[in-house]
Design brief:
about 70 residues, mainly alpha
């Protein structure tokens, strides 16, 4: 199963342990698949922002959305 997880929600899993947050994240890092943001994702995000920006789609949201589209 593939899911898209915004990193801001990912770090909420670790926020209560302020002194050991980085260590906890590094220990769990192998559980996640990280997707590099490439030029295809950025171009898709640009197109989405051009099309839906006036309707409320923000730049970072368009990057996240285009990443999930690229993963299908």
């Amino acid at each position: 199963m593939k899911i898209f997880l915004d990193t801001s929600s990912l770090f909420k899993l670790y926020h209560r342990e302020a002194k050991t947050t980085l260590e906890l994240f590094e220990a769990d890092c192998s559980k996640y698949t990280f997707i590099a943001t490439d030029s295809i994702i950025i171009e898709q995000a640009r197109k989405l922002t051009t099309k839906y920006g006036l309707k409320g789609l923000r730049t970072l949201d368009s990057i996240q959305l285009s990443t999930s589209i690229a993963l299908q």
